[in-house]
Amino acid sequence: MAEEIRVLILEDVPLDAELIETQLKREGLQFTSRIVEKEEDYRRELAEFQPSIILADHSLPQFDGITAMNLAREITPNTPFIFVSGKIGEDFAVEMLKEGATDYVLKNNLTKLPHSVKRALKEAKEKLEKFKAQEAIKEREEKYRTLFEYFPNYVVVLGLDGKIIDLNHAAAKFSPLSREDTIGMYFNDLQSITGEDSVYYQELFSRYLNGEEVGPFESRLISRDGEIRLMEVYPAPLLKNGELFAVQVIAQDITDRKKAETEINASLKEKEMLLGEINGRVRNYMNMISSLLELQSVYMKNEENREVLKDNKNRVKSMLLIHDGFSQSEDFALIDFSQYIKKLIELIVSSYHVDTDRIKMKTHTDGLMLDIDAAIPCGLIINELLTNAVKHAFPGTMEGEICVEFGLDNHDNNVLLVKDNGVGLASDIEFKDSGTMGFQLVNTLVKQLEGSIILSKNKGTTFQILWSRSEY
């Protein structure tokens, strides 16, 4: 829908005003008009009616067109103003055009008026649109300038010849020279750049202008106080009409960050060395205990006592496996328990010389991780139950299989199954009340996990241990 045209007519002769309206309507212009002849009415309509265009007679009994034009320029400067007069000299008309009038039309040639009005309205619209566009550009430039000036990092704008076009407040404070002296210098002549780096920066700049990608790089710059600061530098193109016209260089001071990183890395290295030393000592102590038990068993003549020592030695080794798992883990707080179970089975098979053709060893695990509070008791439980199955489930040449399963149930609880299809426990054995050290240890460790244990004697022996999953 076209915008309504509001025409303010300054005319003291009603017939002339009517002729003006008639001529505009004849040319198909849709408009609303107001007719005034006194200054006070004119002022009121300028404010209230807000005309799209003003058509004014040059001379009125109580008012005049020149004053009306000046008032219009003051109150509504973007509104076109056309003189419509019975007589007007050429010199006067030219002078009024210079003073701000849009056009002039003689009353004896009103056929020109519609064309003049249309052209004036079109030019006013274009002028307004141009003004708005310029204001928007100005606003964007002011926003950019504010951001540029108060950006905390150092920003320097380089021309394609390498001269400094501009620099922000932070860069000006860093530069050894004043802002005025810095602008216009070649960047590699800056006292902030060390001599050994000047050639390198010139090479990078040339490569960038040739279209090569120059990513963020580290640089050493000398501050106004003479201190060498480490910077991370980001070059960015500035384009005009799609063409590169300047390069914006942003430098972030990373001296303190690098210093902190160095201190942290040194601290971590020291802790890693200390942790490695502790891990080595713990491993040596455990191996020493295992060796002492092995040595003591050599001098034991009683076979039952020798078995007890072997069982204890395997308990130590099962804990050593957990220790090794944590020390080799990327996360010292967790261990891959699936891998631990496989290594523990290998240890028991080797220690008790299990014939794996006769007794098959199987595992079904979900690759779960355990923390140290759960891993040690759980590892010892598996060691006890596997050792018991290997020694007692398949007497003589009996064949079968032992399986270890580890995963989560529907309630997200840890579930450990150690089962075999061997001869099973004797019906008179109550493992929770058994006096054997192995079963006593298993029950104690299950309590430590705050879990429960269930024994099933259907087609062999199955131990099911259930405990809540830790939050880690």
Structural write-up:
It is built from 13 helices and 17 strands. Helix 2 (39-48) packs parallel to helix 3 (65-75) and helix 11 runs parallel beside helix 12 (372-392). The protein folds into three domains: 5-143, Response regulator (Rossmann fold); 151-253, 2-Layer Sandwich (Beta-Lactamase); 333-467, Heat Shock Protein 90 (2-Layer Sandwich), CATH 3.30.565. With 472 residues, it is α/β, with parallel strands linked by helices. It has a five-stranded parallel β-sheet with strand order 2-1-3-4-5, with helices on both faces. Strand 6 and strand 7 (164-167) form a beta hairpin. The radius of gyration is 48 Å and the shape is elongated. The mean pLDDT is 85. The chain has helices spanning 14-26, 39-48, 65-75, 90-99, 113-150, 169-174, 179-182, 195-209, 255-298, 303-328, 337-351, 372-392, 437-448, and strands spanning 5-10, 31-36, 53-56, 81-85, 103-106, 154-159, 164-167, 217-222, 228-240, 243-253, 334-336, 359-365, 369-371, 400-408, 414-420, 452-456, 461-467.
